[in-house]
Design brief:
alpha+beta, eight-stranded mixed β-sheet, three-stranded antiparallel β-sheet
Length: about 375
């Protein structure tokens, strides 16, 4: 969305409004140290959150326009000073809000890596692959869309048959590589990118469609499933037969690894169901691997479940919340105490990093 023009005086009033209504509120205490805020307006010896000030001045919700360069430029043109907040050595947090609009250079690929031009931008510095879709794709012979609970995302390659290399291979093997898939919808030049959500790749298939020159070619299409949807299927199928889960540790591991491999098999099965079955097999193996002992603190499970098995919880070490990256190398079986500490404790990041190193040693 283009930010509507307002006067410098209106922005001055927004600064006063922030001081009067928001600065003392608990949710704005210490906002300058929050890694979600990278830039601030410096006025009258005080710092103000740039996007919030523009929102107050224009009446446009903060989730409807890009921060970073577009917002900074808007304010600078009206005579305001913009400063980058000193976050020291702290790493920016890989966290986006569905529906919110982000600037690719300053809020996506800038801080987290990956090409600024490619539709598939795999980061070399963070465990993430950024995917971009938009109406402009139609001019290159493809259009992404939803189908039966999955998002059909066309791979990269403008001319000739697509092959499973570079960005296409990165998507297919994202679970094996421990990389999250974050999808954005491009809103047009200078308008930013709306965050759609995090996805898992269920499988892929080929279809014939024109390339940029109008010639028919073989294209690769990925079936992507929103993270968290497998939990809904689990609720519906809580009494599903467990007979397909292996009883030996070696067989369970092979089944879990096989479920994570990219494939084009059984496209008649819904993509969400495939992700759910993958999660079941990975969790089954991981819990067997732990042998009743938390893989973080190495203490016995706190209690036994009604079926006689020790109670531990699967935790995904490459995610802020659980779900999504299902692969034995990135999922640990932890006790509820360690799980809560990882997500909410002051030393949670350190505990998670130690668990990640242990899983790497176990799975190789």
């Amino acid at each position: 969305m283009v930010i509507k023009a307002v006067s410098k005086e209106r922005i001055d009033k927004a600064l006063l409004e922030f001081d009067r209504k928001f600065r003392s509120k608990s949710e704005w205490q210490g906002w300058e140290k929050n890694l979600a805020h990278r830039y601030a307006v410096h006025a009258g010896g005080e710092l103000y959150p740039a996007k919030k000030i523009v929102s107050l001045a224009t009446g446009i919700a903060v989730g409807e326009f890009s921060g970073g360069r577009p917002t900074n430029s808007y304010l600078e043109k009206r005579g305001f000073t913009i400063v980058e907040l000193p976050h020291g050595e702290g790493e920016p947090v890989l966290q986006f809000t569905p529906g919110a609009v982000y600037d690719r250079k300053t809020e996506i690929n800038g801080p987290f890596g990956g090409s600024l031009q490619s539709g598939i931008a795999a980061s070399a510095t963070h465990p993430v692959i950024f995917l971009f879709t938009g109406d402009s794709g139609e001019q290159y012979g493809y259009a992404d869309d939803w189908d039966n609970g999955a998002y059909l995302y066309t791979g990269e390659g403008q001319r000739g048959p697509m092959t499973l290399i570079r960005g296409n291979r990165a998507i297919a093997e994202h679970a094996e590589d421990g990389r999250a898939l974050h999808l954005f919808k491009s809103l047009g030049k200078g308008k930013g990118n709306a965050y759609v959500g995090e996805f898992s790749c269920a499988d892929m298939f080929e279809r014939t469609q024109p390339d940029v020159s109008g010639q028919d070619r073989t294209a690769i299409v990925f079936r992507l499933v929103p993270v968290g949807i497998s939990g809904e299927i689990a609720d519906e199928e809580q009494y599903e037969d467990e007979a397909d889960l292996s009883e030996s540790l070696a067989a369970a591991r092979l089944a879990a690894l096989a479920a994570c491999k990219p494939s084009s098999d059984d496209l008649g099965q819904s993509a969400p169901r495939k992700i759910y079955q993958r999660s079941r097999k990975v969790a089954h193996y991981v819990l067997m691997r732990a042998e009743g002992e938390c893989e973080s603190c190495e203490k016995p499970a706190p209690f036994m479940k009604k079926d006689g098995t020790p109670y531990l919880e699967p935790h995904h070490v490459n995610r802020l919340s659980d779900g999504g990256l299902d692969h034995p190398r990135y999922v640990g079986a932890v006790c509820p105490s360690c799980h809560r500490e990882i997500h909410s404790g002051v030393h949670g990041a350190l505990v998670n990093q130690r668990l990640k190193q242990r899983l790497e040693a176990i799975e190789g």
